[in-house]
Design goal:
Radius of gyration: 27 Å
Strand content: 5-15%
Order of helices and strands: HHEEEEEHEEEHHHHH
Shape: extended
Structural class: alpha/beta
Largest sheet: 6 strands, mixed
Number of strands: 8
Mean pLDDT: 84
Length: 295
Protein backbone atom coordinates (compact mmCIF):
# COMPACT_ATOMS: atom_id res chain seq x y z
CA UNK A 1 0.00 0.00 0.00
CA UNK A 2 1.34 3.46 -0.89
CA UNK A 3 2.13 5.65 2.09
CA UNK A 4 -0.29 8.46 2.79
CA UNK A 5 1.26 11.89 2.62
CA UNK A 6 1.11 13.74 5.96
CA UNK A 7 -1.50 16.45 6.09
CA UNK A 8 0.02 19.95 6.08
CA UNK A 9 -0.30 22.01 9.26
CA UNK A 10 -0.06 25.36 7.48
CA UNK A 11 -1.61 26.68 4.29
CA UNK A 12 0.81 28.26 1.80
CA UNK A 13 1.19 31.93 2.64
CA UNK A 14 1.41 32.62 -1.09
CA UNK A 15 -2.12 31.31 -1.50
CA UNK A 16 -4.35 34.26 -2.31
CA UNK A 17 -6.82 33.70 0.53
CA UNK A 18 -4.11 33.06 3.15
CA UNK A 19 -2.05 36.09 2.14
CA UNK A 20 -5.07 38.38 2.24
CA UNK A 21 -6.17 36.97 5.59
CA UNK A 22 -2.75 37.78 7.04
CA UNK A 23 -2.04 41.15 5.47
CA UNK A 24 -5.29 42.59 4.12
CA UNK A 25 -7.34 42.02 7.25
CA UNK A 26 -9.17 45.25 8.05
CA UNK A 27 -9.53 44.21 11.68
CA UNK A 28 -5.79 44.54 12.25
CA UNK A 29 -3.06 46.26 10.27
CA UNK A 30 -0.19 45.23 12.55
CA UNK A 31 1.06 42.47 10.24
CA UNK A 32 0.75 44.66 7.16
CA UNK A 33 2.85 47.38 8.82
CA UNK A 34 5.35 44.68 9.80
CA UNK A 35 5.59 43.55 6.16
CA UNK A 36 5.81 47.03 4.64
CA UNK A 37 8.37 48.38 7.11
CA UNK A 38 10.56 45.30 6.64
CA UNK A 39 10.75 45.38 2.85
CA UNK A 40 10.74 49.17 2.46
CA UNK A 41 13.20 49.91 5.28
CA UNK A 42 15.95 51.20 3.00
CA UNK A 43 13.44 53.28 1.00
CA UNK A 44 11.56 55.01 3.81
CA UNK A 45 12.89 57.94 5.82
CA UNK A 46 10.94 56.71 8.84
CA UNK A 47 8.77 53.66 9.61
CA UNK A 48 5.10 53.71 8.62
CA UNK A 49 2.94 54.15 11.70
CA UNK A 50 -0.53 53.68 10.29
CA UNK A 51 -2.17 52.55 7.05
CA UNK A 52 -5.71 52.62 5.71
CA UNK A 53 -6.89 49.92 3.33
CA UNK A 54 -8.29 51.09 0.00
CA UNK A 55 -10.59 49.10 -2.29
CA UNK A 56 -8.38 46.40 -3.85
CA UNK A 57 -10.11 46.65 -7.22
CA UNK A 58 -9.45 49.54 -9.59
CA UNK A 59 -11.99 49.63 -12.35
CA UNK A 60 -11.32 51.07 -15.80
CA UNK A 61 -13.36 54.07 -16.89
CA UNK A 62 -14.99 52.15 -19.75
CA UNK A 63 -16.02 48.53 -20.20
CA UNK A 64 -13.11 48.09 -22.62
CA UNK A 65 -10.53 49.00 -19.99
CA UNK A 66 -8.88 46.26 -17.97
CA UNK A 67 -9.44 46.04 -14.23
CA UNK A 68 -6.62 45.73 -11.69
CA UNK A 69 -7.01 43.62 -8.57
CA UNK A 70 -4.38 43.74 -5.84
CA UNK A 71 -3.94 41.59 -2.76
CA UNK A 72 -3.25 44.73 -0.71
CA UNK A 73 -3.76 48.38 -1.61
CA UNK A 74 -3.42 50.96 1.15
CA UNK A 75 -2.17 54.45 2.04
CA UNK A 76 -0.50 56.05 5.04
CA UNK A 77 -1.17 59.39 6.76
CA UNK A 78 0.92 61.32 4.18
CA UNK A 79 -1.06 59.89 1.27
CA UNK A 80 1.71 57.57 0.08
CA UNK A 81 0.24 54.50 -1.60
CA UNK A 82 1.37 50.89 -1.19
CA UNK A 83 0.51 47.91 -3.34
CA UNK A 84 1.40 44.35 -2.31
CA UNK A 85 0.70 41.23 -4.35
CA UNK A 86 1.67 37.59 -4.68
CA UNK A 87 2.16 36.16 -8.15
CA UNK A 88 2.26 32.38 -8.43
CA UNK A 89 2.15 31.77 -12.18
CA UNK A 90 5.03 33.01 -14.31
CA UNK A 91 4.50 35.80 -16.81
CA UNK A 92 7.06 36.79 -19.43
CA UNK A 93 6.28 40.51 -19.22
CA UNK A 94 5.52 40.66 -15.51
CA UNK A 95 7.46 43.90 -14.91
CA UNK A 96 5.52 45.65 -17.68
CA UNK A 97 2.31 44.18 -16.33
CA UNK A 98 3.08 45.60 -12.86
CA UNK A 99 3.92 48.99 -14.38
CA UNK A 100 0.67 48.98 -16.38
CA UNK A 101 -1.49 48.43 -13.31
CA UNK A 102 0.44 50.96 -11.24
CA UNK A 103 -0.17 53.52 -13.98
CA UNK A 104 -3.89 52.95 -13.45
CA UNK A 105 -3.40 54.07 -9.84
CA UNK A 106 -1.28 57.06 -10.87
CA UNK A 107 -3.99 58.21 -13.29
CA UNK A 108 -6.41 58.44 -10.41
CA UNK A 109 -4.05 60.33 -8.09
CA UNK A 110 -3.78 63.57 -10.06
CA UNK A 111 -6.09 66.16 -8.42
CA UNK A 112 -8.54 67.58 -10.93
CA UNK A 113 -9.59 71.24 -10.66
CA UNK A 114 -9.38 74.03 -13.20
CA UNK A 115 -6.06 72.44 -13.98
CA UNK A 116 -4.63 69.08 -12.99
CA UNK A 117 -2.29 69.10 -9.99
CA UNK A 118 0.37 66.55 -10.86
CA UNK A 119 2.05 66.62 -7.46
CA UNK A 120 0.98 63.01 -7.00
CA UNK A 121 1.88 61.08 -3.83
CA UNK A 122 4.58 58.42 -3.78
CA UNK A 123 3.68 54.91 -4.87
CA UNK A 124 5.42 51.72 -3.76
CA UNK A 125 4.74 48.19 -4.95
CA UNK A 126 6.02 44.90 -3.53
CA UNK A 127 5.59 41.74 -5.60
CA UNK A 128 6.32 38.31 -4.14
CA UNK A 129 6.94 35.95 -7.05
CA UNK A 130 6.96 32.15 -7.07
CA UNK A 131 8.83 32.06 -10.38
CA UNK A 132 12.10 33.23 -11.90
CA UNK A 133 12.32 36.36 -14.01
CA UNK A 134 15.27 37.80 -15.92
CA UNK A 135 16.16 41.25 -14.56
CA UNK A 136 19.33 41.51 -16.64
CA UNK A 137 22.89 40.28 -16.50
CA UNK A 138 24.31 40.26 -12.98
CA UNK A 139 20.95 40.88 -11.29
CA UNK A 140 20.90 37.68 -9.28
CA UNK A 141 19.79 38.96 -5.85
CA UNK A 142 16.61 37.64 -4.25
CA UNK A 143 15.20 41.17 -4.07
CA UNK A 144 15.28 43.57 -7.00
CA UNK A 145 14.58 47.30 -6.56
CA UNK A 146 13.38 49.27 -9.60
CA UNK A 147 12.88 53.05 -9.67
CA UNK A 148 13.13 56.13 -11.89
CA UNK A 149 16.72 57.38 -12.23
CA UNK A 150 18.72 59.93 -14.19
CA UNK A 151 20.74 57.98 -16.79
CA UNK A 152 23.69 60.41 -16.69
CA UNK A 153 23.54 60.71 -12.91
CA UNK A 154 22.37 57.31 -11.60
CA UNK A 155 22.96 58.50 -8.04
CA UNK A 156 19.89 60.72 -8.51
CA UNK A 157 16.62 58.84 -8.21
CA UNK A 158 12.99 59.96 -8.20
CA UNK A 159 10.78 58.47 -5.52
CA UNK A 160 7.58 58.90 -7.53
CA UNK A 161 7.43 55.20 -8.22
CA UNK A 162 9.30 52.34 -6.55
CA UNK A 163 8.84 48.69 -7.55
CA UNK A 164 10.23 45.90 -5.37
CA UNK A 165 10.32 42.30 -6.59
CA UNK A 166 10.99 39.37 -4.24
CA UNK A 167 11.94 36.24 -6.24
CA UNK A 168 11.18 33.38 -3.85
CA UNK A 169 12.92 30.59 -5.85
CA UNK A 170 16.24 32.42 -5.44
CA UNK A 171 16.05 32.24 -1.65
CA UNK A 172 18.14 29.21 -0.66
CA UNK A 173 18.70 29.79 3.07
CA UNK A 174 17.69 27.11 5.52
CA UNK A 175 15.86 27.80 8.78
CA UNK A 176 19.05 28.07 10.87
CA UNK A 177 20.61 30.41 8.30
CA UNK A 178 17.88 33.06 8.55
CA UNK A 179 19.45 35.98 10.39
CA UNK A 180 17.26 38.98 9.62
CA UNK A 181 13.52 39.47 9.91
CA UNK A 182 13.41 39.79 6.13
CA UNK A 183 15.07 36.38 5.81
CA UNK A 184 12.48 34.87 8.13
CA UNK A 185 9.53 36.36 6.26
CA UNK A 186 10.83 35.14 2.89
CA UNK A 187 11.57 31.72 4.36
CA UNK A 188 8.01 31.56 5.73
CA UNK A 189 6.47 32.57 2.40
CA UNK A 190 8.49 29.96 0.54
CA UNK A 191 8.54 27.07 3.02
CA UNK A 192 5.87 27.64 5.69
CA UNK A 193 3.43 25.07 4.29
CA UNK A 194 6.15 22.37 4.38
CA UNK A 195 6.89 22.76 8.09
CA UNK A 196 5.61 20.63 10.96
CA UNK A 197 5.72 23.59 13.33
CA UNK A 198 6.88 27.17 13.75
CA UNK A 199 10.70 27.36 13.64
CA UNK A 200 12.06 27.74 17.17
CA UNK A 201 14.27 30.67 16.16
CA UNK A 202 11.25 32.62 14.87
CA UNK A 203 10.39 34.41 18.11
CA UNK A 204 9.05 37.72 16.75
CA UNK A 205 5.38 38.06 17.73
CA UNK A 206 4.41 39.12 14.20
CA UNK A 207 5.93 35.96 12.71
CA UNK A 208 4.08 33.85 15.27
CA UNK A 209 0.84 35.62 14.33
CA UNK A 210 1.46 34.98 10.63
CA UNK A 211 1.86 31.25 11.27
CA UNK A 212 -1.31 31.22 13.38
CA UNK A 213 -3.19 32.80 10.48
CA UNK A 214 -1.86 30.07 8.16
CA UNK A 215 -2.56 27.23 10.62
CA UNK A 216 -5.23 25.10 8.94
CA UNK A 217 -6.73 23.94 12.25
CA UNK A 218 -7.69 27.59 12.93
CA UNK A 219 -9.71 27.88 9.71
CA UNK A 220 -13.47 28.29 9.76
CA UNK A 221 -15.52 25.82 7.70
CA UNK A 222 -15.81 28.40 4.94
CA UNK A 223 -12.08 29.14 4.97
CA UNK A 224 -11.29 25.43 4.87
CA UNK A 225 -13.49 24.90 1.82
CA UNK A 226 -11.90 27.92 0.13
CA UNK A 227 -8.43 26.59 0.96
CA UNK A 228 -9.18 23.11 -0.40
CA UNK A 229 -10.66 24.55 -3.60
CA UNK A 230 -7.62 26.82 -4.08
CA UNK A 231 -5.18 23.95 -3.52
CA UNK A 232 -7.08 21.72 -5.95
CA UNK A 233 -6.97 24.49 -8.53
CA UNK A 234 -3.24 24.98 -7.92
CA UNK A 235 -2.57 21.23 -8.35
CA UNK A 236 -4.67 21.20 -11.54
CA UNK A 237 -2.69 24.11 -12.96
CA UNK A 238 0.60 22.33 -12.21
CA UNK A 239 -0.67 19.13 -13.83
CA UNK A 240 -1.78 21.03 -16.95
CA UNK A 241 1.60 22.78 -17.16
CA UNK A 242 3.51 19.52 -16.68
CA UNK A 243 1.46 17.84 -19.42
CA UNK A 244 2.01 20.77 -21.79
CA UNK A 245 5.75 20.67 -21.14
CA UNK A 246 5.86 16.91 -21.77
CA UNK A 247 3.96 17.25 -25.05
CA UNK A 248 6.25 20.13 -26.01
CA UNK A 249 9.33 17.99 -25.43
CA UNK A 250 7.82 15.14 -27.48
CA UNK A 251 6.99 17.53 -30.30
CA UNK A 252 10.48 18.97 -30.14
CA UNK A 253 11.98 15.49 -30.43
CA UNK A 254 9.74 14.69 -33.41
CA UNK A 255 10.64 17.94 -35.15
CA UNK A 256 14.31 17.39 -34.42
CA UNK A 257 14.10 13.87 -35.88
CA UNK A 258 12.39 15.16 -39.02
CA UNK A 259 15.02 17.86 -39.49
CA UNK A 260 17.75 15.26 -39.02
CA UNK A 261 16.26 12.96 -41.69
CA UNK A 262 15.87 15.84 -44.14
CA UNK A 263 19.46 16.92 -43.54
CA UNK A 264 20.65 13.32 -44.11
CA UNK A 265 18.77 13.22 -47.41
CA UNK A 266 20.33 16.55 -48.44
CA UNK A 267 23.80 15.27 -47.64
CA UNK A 268 23.24 12.03 -49.59
CA UNK A 269 22.01 13.88 -52.66
CA UNK A 270 24.97 16.27 -52.46
CA UNK A 271 27.36 13.30 -52.42
CA UNK A 272 25.77 11.76 -55.51
CA UNK A 273 23.63 8.99 -54.00
CA UNK A 274 20.83 7.80 -56.26
CA UNK A 275 17.21 8.82 -55.82
CA UNK A 276 16.33 5.23 -54.89
CA UNK A 277 19.10 5.02 -52.27
CA UNK A 278 17.92 8.22 -50.60
CA UNK A 279 14.32 6.95 -50.50
CA UNK A 280 15.40 3.66 -48.99
CA UNK A 281 17.74 5.20 -46.38
CA UNK A 282 15.43 7.98 -45.15
CA UNK A 283 11.92 6.58 -45.76
CA UNK A 284 10.91 10.00 -47.10
CA UNK A 285 8.24 10.34 -49.77
CA UNK A 286 9.16 10.85 -53.40
CA UNK A 287 7.72 14.37 -53.31
CA UNK A 288 9.92 15.30 -50.31
CA UNK A 289 13.11 14.01 -51.97
CA UNK A 290 12.23 15.74 -55.27
CA UNK A 291 11.72 19.01 -53.35
CA UNK A 292 15.15 18.60 -51.73
CA UNK A 293 16.73 17.85 -55.08
CA UNK A 294 15.22 21.02 -56.60
CA UNK A 295 16.27 23.20 -53.66
Amino acid sequence: MPKKLPKPKFAPLTLDSTFKKAFANEQSTELLLFLLNTFLAEKLKSPIKEVININHELFGKTRLNRDAVFDVYCRDATGTRFVVEVQVEGQKHFIKRTFFYLCMIVCGLAVKGKEYDFNIPKLYSISFMEFELDFGEGCTEVIQYLSLRNDKHPEISYDILQMIYVILPRFKKKENECETIMDKIIFSLKNGHKLKGVPKSFKEKELLQIFEVARISNFTERELKQYEASMMNRHDQKAILAYAEEKGREKGKEEGLKKGILQTAKNMLAKGFSFADVLKATNLSREQVRALKRA
